[in-house]
């Protein structure tokens, strides 16, 4: 049995307009430091992160405590999206049709086509228990894929910043359980 810990980033500073470079807020940094307690007694062999600042900063205290390097992977980034006033309604529609997208944004199918192979590559290139840090929508699309559709829009709505999920994988690389663990 192998465990993969999926970490959704902590609270981002929304005053920074560039999505990729937006850092964590002070409260977000405090929560990121608190996450280290979840991993200190685990046998973590590697840490992977989206290249976005908020994801990297979320796992940095854990990496420092465990004396591990954070490997960034571009395909773990968040879904390219355009802010809309009807954002929640639009996301609900995207969950109904993974090919749906507005001009200038990625569909959920686009995200799935990049994040699933990225996850598979990370899984195949590592051994033991690892941490993968990313974003709510991108991780949700991955979870939806891994659970054969059991992870849904309502599960996405219940995600926190930060949040930690543990995926239990069999020796045959099959997900046998996905659970949200307390942060």
Helix/strand layout:
Blueprint: E1 2-8, H1 26-34, H2 36-39, E2 44-49, H3 53-66, E3 70-72, H4 87-96, H5 108-125, E4 129-134, H6 136-146, H7 153-157, E5 163-169, E6 175-181
Parallel strand pairs: 1-4, 2-3, 2-4
Antiparallel strand pairs: 1-5, 5-6
What does this structure look like?
The protein has 183 residues and is α/β, with parallel strands linked by helices. The chain has a single domain, classed as 3-Layer(aba) Sandwich (Rossmann fold). Helices cover 39% and strands 20% of the residues. It contains seven helices and six strands. A six-stranded mixed β-sheet has the order 3-2-4-1-5-6. Helix 3 links the parallel strand 2 and strand 3. Helix 1 packs parallel to helix 3 and helix 5 crosses helix 6. The chain starts with a strand and ends with a strand. The mean pLDDT is 94. It comes from Leuconostoc carnosum (strain JB16). GO terms for molecular function: phosphatase activity.
Show unreliable segments.
none
Distance linking N and C termini? 22 Å
Overall average pLDDT: 94
Structural class, by secondary structure, is alpha/beta
Query: How large is the radius of gyration?
Result: 16 Å
Describe the global form. globular
Strand order of the largest sheet: 3-2-4-1-5-6
CATH topology: Rossmann fold
User: Would you count the extended β strands for me?
Assistant: 6
Q: How large is the count of helical segments?
A: 7
Which oligomeric state applies? single chain
Which CATH architecture is right?
Answer: 3-Layer(aba) Sandwich
SSE order: EHHEHEHHEHHEE
The first-level CATH class name: Alpha Beta
How helix-rich are the residues, as a percent range?
Answer: 25-40%
Residues in β-strands, percent: 15-25%
Work out the count of structural domains. 1
Please summarize the sheet with the most strands: 6 strands, mixed
Instruction: Give the CATH superfamily.
Output: Phosphoglycerate mutase-like
GO cellular component, one term: cytoplasm
Pfam families: His_Phos_1
Organism: Leuconostoc carnosum (strain JB16)
InterPro entries: His_Pase_superF_clade-1, His_PPase_superfam, PGM_Phosphatase
């Amino acid at each position: 049995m192998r465990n993969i810990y999926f970490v959704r980033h902590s609270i981002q500073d929304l005053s920074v307009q560039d999505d990729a470079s937006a850092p964590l807020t002070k409260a977000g940094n405090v929560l990121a430091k608190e996450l280290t307690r979840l991993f200190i007694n685990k046998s973590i062999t590697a840490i992977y992160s989206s290249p976005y600042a908020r994801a990297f900063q979320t796992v940095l205290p854990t990496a420092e405590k465990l004396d591990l390097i954070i490997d960034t992977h571009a395909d773990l980034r968040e879904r390219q999206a355009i802010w809309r006033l009807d954002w929640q309604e639009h996301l609900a529609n995207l969950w109904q049709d993974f090919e749906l997208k507005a001009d200038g944004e990625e569909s959920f199918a686009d995200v799935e086509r990049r994040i699933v192979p990225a996850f598979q590559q990370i899984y195949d290139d590592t051994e033991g228990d690892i941490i993968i840090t990313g974003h709510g929508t991108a991780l949700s699309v991955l979870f939806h894929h891994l659970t054969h559709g059991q992870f849904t829009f309502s599960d996405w709505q219940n995600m926190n910043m930060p949040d930690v999920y543990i995926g239990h994988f069999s020796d045959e690389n099959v997900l046998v359980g996905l659970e949200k663990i307390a942060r």
